[in-house]
Amino acid sequence: MPMHYLRTYAGPHRTDISNRRLGRSLAFVAGAVNAGGFFAVGQYTSHMSGIVSALADNLALGELALLWAGLASLAAFFMGAATSAILINWGRRHEAHSRYALPLLLEATLLLVFGLTGAQLASQGHVAGTVALLCYVMGLQNAIVTTASRAEIRTTHVTGLVTDIGIELGKLAYWNRDVNAARVTADRQRLALLGSLLAMFLLGGVTGAFGFKYLGFIATVPLAVVLLLLAIVPLFDDVRGRVGSSL
Q1: Of 33, 208, 213, 245, which is most buried with the most CB atoms under 10 A?
Q2: CB 237 within 8 A of CB 97
Q3: Residues contacting 66, CB < 8 A, separation 6+
């Protein structure tokens, strides 16, 4: 991947194009972690709808252990998003090129740890902790692109994507019979973006599912490498700038 592309992926000068590139890349990672993680721990971790619903079910059933595990997962997602916000705003305050790269680097590190130690943790019965770790990673990631795109793009769940695609398709199919009324038109550019995000999430899911099925936890290591590639150039720019200013 060319250096200038990596610089726009996670650098401070965000454009619609760079936000879309980052969004597609992270949608792929989210799909892979979500589907692959299900093979590993038996639970989806990229969206909170199912976890919150499970909290209500487990409370009604009196399954306190599962209730606490669900609360831990929900809290981990919150904490991941909060951590991302702290890192991005710290970087913005210090005018860092790596303001978006810092949480990407943390996510890459955690996925690397998960890939190298996840099998051991699961074998020792630390499934709830493993699920909470993945939820933290997904909260971290979702906040990155949400902040970068000013809440226009989210990558870790597809309910909103599918809803928005349906809305745009409805506008596209609308028959504007009355020439005197305001025309109903679809935003084709937005429709293409939403479709590409959904496709990348699905592609990532297929890749992650087959990866975990045949390789196990180590399948997250290539995902960590992808995130490292997205983060490394802005980080290098900051290091080079600090070294240059100190000379």
Answers
A1: 33
A2: yes
A3: 54, 58
For residue range 142-159, list pLDDT tens digits in order.
Answer: 888 777 766 667 776 788
pLDDT tens digits along 43-67? 877 778 888 888 999 999 999 988 9
